[in-house]
Each structure stands twice: as C-alpha cells, then as structure tokens.
Amino acid sequence: MPHPGWSTFRFEGIGTQWEISTPDRLAPAIRSELLEIVAEYDKTWSRFRPDSLVSILSHGPGIITLPDHAVALQKLYSVLYRLSDGAMTPLIGSSLERLGYDAGYALVPSGLPLAPPRWEDVLDWTGTDLAAKEPVVLDVGAAGKGQLVDLLGAALRAQGQSDFLVDGSGDMLHSGDHPVTVALEHPYNPRQAIGTVELHNSALCASASNRRTWGDGLHHVLDGSTGEPIHTTVATWTMAESALVADGLATALFMLEPPRLEVEFDFSWLSVSSNGAAAFSHGFEGRLFT
Questions:
Q1: 101: CB partners within 8 A, 6+ apart
Q2: Burial degree of 245 (CB within 10 A; 0-12, 13-18, 19+)
Q3: pLDDT at residue 234 in the model
Q4: pTM for the structure as a whole
Q5: Given 7, 28, 271, 274, which residue has the most CB atoms within 10 angstroms?
Q6: What's the CA gap between 206 and 195, in Å, rounded?
Q7: Dihedral sign computed on CA atoms, order 265, 270, 272, 273
Q8: Which has the minimum average pLDDT: 176-190, 195-209, 222-236, 264-278?
Q9: Average pLDDT, stretch 49-61?
Q10: Beta carbons of 138 and 117 less than 8 angstroms apart
C-alpha cells in the first residue's frame, strides 16, 4: 500500500472509490484535472446514465464518434473477443440488465440470461468510429476501469509526477523508485487476504465474482456466448505494463486458459477456482498464505 507519509487524494467516480497517492499533496489544479478525466470517461461509456455517449446506441441504430482512447480499448476487446470465441464481448450489457444489474440497480432479474448478438453482426467499431446496426447496450466494464487508471497515470506524468499509486478499488498503476506491497483480497472474505504481491512500475488488476453479486448465484462476470454468470473461477489477478491490459486479462481469465492469452500478451497472473485451488504463472512473484 502507499508509503508512510504520502498524501492521498480520495474521491468517487464511475461508481467506485479512488485513491491517488503521491509523495506530496497534489495541487488543486491537478486534482480538478483528474476529476474531469473521470467525469468525461463516465459520460462517454456509462450504461447507467441516459446522457452518456454510448447510451445513444441503446435506443436504435446509430453512429457515434468516441474519444481517442477508444482506439486502444477497441484493439484489446477485438483480440480478446477473437481468442475467447466471443465469450468476452462489449455487447454483454443487455444480459446484465436482464439479470437485474441495470441503470436503476434493480438487482431483480426480469428474465433468463440472454446471449448477446455476435459483434460482427451488429457492431462496426473501427478506432474512434462506432456504428450499431440495431439497438445495443455496450458495457466495457471488463477493461474500462483499467484504462481510466492509465489515463489518470498519464495525466500525473504530464504534470511532472513520477512517483504515484493510482488505485481504482483494486485496479492499480504504480510509478516510481519504491515498490509497494499489495494484499490480495480473499474471494470470500474481503477482510482477509490470501497473499501479497510487490508492485513496481507496472499495473495490477483483479476481477472477482464476489465484487458485484445479487440474487441466487448472480454476479457481473458473464460468459458472452451464453449471457450467464461464470462459476468455475471466483477470482483472478494480473500484472502487466498497463492497467488496460491487466484489467481486460483479469476478466478474460474467467473464460480462457492462460496459455491461450500468453501467446499474445506479456503478463503474469494468479487465478482461484471455485473449488479453492489456486494457480499462478512463473512471473507472478507474490506470496500466497497457506
């Protein structure tokens, strides 16, 4: 966690808690810039607000122009969609809403899980240009928070901040000469840890089925080929150069065996299955408690 004596800027954004830790207190202008980046990201991508840019496409066919950061997001999603045979898709939003994880947080299913349409049938997403042939509910939550972590890190560097820890409720980006030790949250008890890992000039992201749960066996990590929650894996952690990639891969590990991802991505990982077994890559240099 942050070094003793560091200053921490805390705020809420995109429905989660944020902490940005730096050796010295951030100037008000920098804090305002960071808050604006978060607000703009939410206004672009949130499926929970009717005035967001992507919400336009939930009402009918249409075309929208996205910010420049959409290029990297589209590239990551397209690779993971291909590798997972469609199981990881930005079109999972309709099934999440159907299961009760909707804009009003009803948390009461309105029907059975619904497999989303195939990307290639309804969506043409090239860089910053996105066109939908029919109404779609986009959800980039599998990698979006990680990308926002990166955007905040880039803003800090642009302001001359070389030492920092951006923590978006467990999705982290570290920069500086002094590594930090991060506790890995127990998938069934958030007040306990199953181990620790050292984070140094890289990103660490986690995905867990216990983070957003409701009803009987319902949670937010869905299989895009069926629209149903995944129950074989309960928690994953990944470390990569960027939080965008780490976040996306943490979700992808619920759907894919690591070797398939390691062909195209340089990352390390830890995964906990529903039977309690833990597996990890050679590069995941952490300490697991027995």
A1: 107, 212, 214, 218, 220
A2: buried
A3: 86
A4: 0.93
A5: 271
A6: 13
A7: positive
A8: 222-236
A9: 96
A10: no
The whole-angstrom separation of Cα 283 and Cα 200 is 13
Instruction: Look up residue 234 and give its two tokens.
Output: 């309960």
Residue 286's pLDDT band (boundaries 50, 70, 90)? Answer: confident
The strand pair at 228-229 and 233-240 is best described as unpaired
pLDDT in tens, 86-115: 999 999 988 888 887 667 766 677 677 788
> Which residue shows structure tokens 């499926």?
47
List, in order of start, the domains of the chain with CATH numbers.
Answer: 7-23+164-288 (3.10.520.10)
Classify residue 167 by burial, with Cβ atoms within 10 Å: 0-12, 13-18, 19+. Answer: buried
Q: Give the DSSP H or E segment for 252.
A: helix 243-252
Among residues 226, 234, 231, 251, the alpha carbon closest in space to that of 79 is found at: 251
DSSP state of 118: P
Burial of residue 40 (CB within 10 Å: 0-12, 13-18, 19+) is middle
